[in-house]
Amino acid sequence: MTIRTITPAATASGGHVPAAPLVRPTQAHDHSQCISQALSSAEQLCAASGARLTPLRRRVLELVWASHKPLGAYDLLDQLAREGHKPAPPTIYRALDFLLEQRLIHRLASLNAYLGCSHPGDAHAGYFLICQGCGTVEEIADTRGLQQAIAQVTEAAGFLMEQGALELGGRCLPCREGRA
Ligand SMILES: [Zn+2]
Ligand SMILES: [Zn+2]
Ligand SMILES: [Zn+2]
User: Fold this and answer.
1) Where does CATH 3.30.1490.190 sit in the chain?
2) Which residues surround ligand 1, an ion (CB under 5 A)?
3) 41 C-alpha vs ligand 2 centroid, how far in Å?
């Protein structure tokens, strides 16, 4: 059996490197900072690409970012209805599609729910740690090792990967320690 070692050059190719350390969603932090940062990045990215961040799209993004727990389309509809809006489901889905296209949010297939992207604006597959205790989801920030491992497996199988999200279920540290 041979074990292929991962060369530094291969590891460095591709993959997103976060510009600044991101907060862990499961750590105590000022979440209003997450929300304001997400909204200002969205405004900048949309302004740069000429996409229209309408008030509804912006509000949907803000609601998705209400916490680090993914929200379903019907949760969003309920919330908007409580605020006195009554958008039809297709309107919400169009807003969500827009946010997905702009890479501002991710859809978690296993939960059929949406999560704000922690490093929006660059094309990346989403790799997620989903806590089945408290529902918090962390998007893995440094994905270089994972991308390398997945590339090895898919290339060995002669498989052309087109969609590469990874949703890992388990328990976050606070839940494991009985703090959540
Ligand atoms: Zn936060
Ligand atoms: Zn992301
Ligand atoms: Zn948890």
Assistant:
1) 124-180
2) 31, 34
3) 13
Delimit the CATH 1.10.10.10 region(s) of the chain: 29-120
Determine if the pTM surpasses 0.90.
Answer: no
Residue 8 CA to ligand 1 center (angstroms) comes to 32
Q: 73: how many CB neighbours lie within 10 A of its CB?
A: 17
Output the DSSP codes for 112-130. Answer: TEEEE-SSTTS----EEEE
* Binding site as annotated, residues: 131, 134, 172, 175
CA distance 61 to 156: 39
Residue range 49-85, pLDDT digits in tens: 999 999 999 999 999 999 999 999 999 999 999 998 8
Q: Which residues pair with 114 in a beta bridge?
A: 71, 107
Among candidates 108, 100, 58, 97, which has minimal Cα distance to 80?
Answer: 58
Architecture of the 124-180 domain: 2-Layer Sandwich (3.30)
Are the CB atoms for 59 and 20 separated by under 8 Å?
no
Residue matched to tokens 């727990």? 69
Q: Which ligand has the minimum distance to the alpha carbon of residue 122?
A: 2
As a CATH number, domain 29-120 is 1.10.10.10
Taking the CA of 27 as reference, the closest ligand is 1
Distance 68 CA to ligand 1 centre (A): 6
C-alpha to C-alpha distances, 119 to 20, 59, 116, nearest whole angstrom: 10, 19, 9
